[in-house]
Specification:
- The protein is mainly alpha-helical.
- It is 76% helix and 0% strand.
- It is built from 6 helices and no strands.
Length: 150
């Protein structure tokens, strides 16, 4: 995870799975950048919402792939991802057609990211660790310390 993106990921949401943590940090950094663009444009620049949604799709695919590689049941989590993608896509569309404002969208996304990672991805990360399906460099004691903070 690059230093700049890492600054946006709260420590309590780190899973100690590099690929997922990098994507989470990137999503938070992208959201911060989106906020800046919205302030500059006083609205949602059209391509920005689509780019965020595509990054989310990629992230969901990554988690699904890691679960499959570890032999974990991911159906419930995948269903939540699909619902989230539909809701965020709809929210972006509502902003683009002028029914909602960009800043409400940003608040919703910030809340959703944190809640989803805390409630869904942290337990998923623990399941991946327990299945010994983590990337090299995992330190169990560091993972335990992060869990105690949350």
């Amino acid at each position: 995870m690059d230093h700049e993106s890492a600054a946006f990921l709260p420590e309590a949401l780190i899973l100690d799975i590099d690929e997922i943590d990098d994507q989470h940090a990137g999503l938070f950094a992208r959201l911060a950048q989106l906020k800046e663009h919205c302030i500059e444009a006083n609205g949602l620049p059209p391509g920005e919402g689509c780019a965020l949604l595509e990054a989310l799709r990629e992230h969901c695919s990554t988690e699904e792939r890691l679960a499959a590689e570890a032999g974990l049941d991911f159906d419930e989590h995948a269903t939540k991802h699909q619902a989230m993608l539909r809701c965020i896509g709809h929210a972006i569309e509502q902003v683009l057609i002028g029914k909602n404002d960009a800043f409400s969208l940003i608040r919703y996304l910030e809340y959703w990211f944190e809640r989803h990672i805390h409630d869904e991805d942290v337990p998923f990360g623990e399941r991946l660790h327990n299945a010994n399906a983590v990337l090299p460099g995992w330190q169990p004691e560091a993972f335990a310390e992060v869990r105690q903070v949350a």
